[in-house]
Amino acid sequence: MSDVSDLQRWKLKRLIKTLEAARGSGTSMISLAIPPKQQISQVVSMLTEEFGTASNIKSRVNRQSVLSAITSAQHRLKLYPRTPPNGLVVYCGTVLTDDGKEKLVNIDFEPFKPVSTKLYLCDSKFHLEPLAGLLEDSTKFGFIVIDGKGSLYGQLSGNTRETLHQFSVELPKKHGRGGQSSMRFGRIRLEKRQNYVRKVAEKATQLFITNNAINVTGLILAGSA
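Given the sequence above, the corresponding structure tokens read:
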């Protein structure tokens, strides 16, 4: 992940301040956040369904405002043949100016780091959680959860948690017999446990070391013995 410049943060803070002050009448303001892995086509289909639902709003003024906002959001999405690498945030709707007049707002924003959650809300205000989350500490930690059944690898940055890899394992249980049979099974069991630990370490090296340098701030180990 590339470093975020002070200019990018300043522009985002200014955008948040502007949108935070915006207010509308009824539920004519749409907040839409699309994570990197969500397809634009899925969101377009969802908005088409929402358009049909909004057509049944009883208040003519509110109905027209909501339909206009949904249409604006659809037009914004047409500019993107696919979801950008870090996702997309869209704000559309009719807001009230200081002198009581109505103004149409259309904003599409490609974030400088991945959007962690998807969001679609119609309200009398814009919901800015997706943008505010971009300003959180981007320190990245890796974590490994390991027990006798398998291991899971992931990374955590702010409120964003991502699973990188996981695998299962079947380790032999303790053998109840005595004598040479017990010793032989004991050696087999120890060998398989050692191989499992070695595999866990090799995968951790692949995931958390890049060009001979660790790619996370810290590494958290958890699990049961």
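The two ends are 34 Å apart (CA to CA). Try to locate this feature in the token string yourself.
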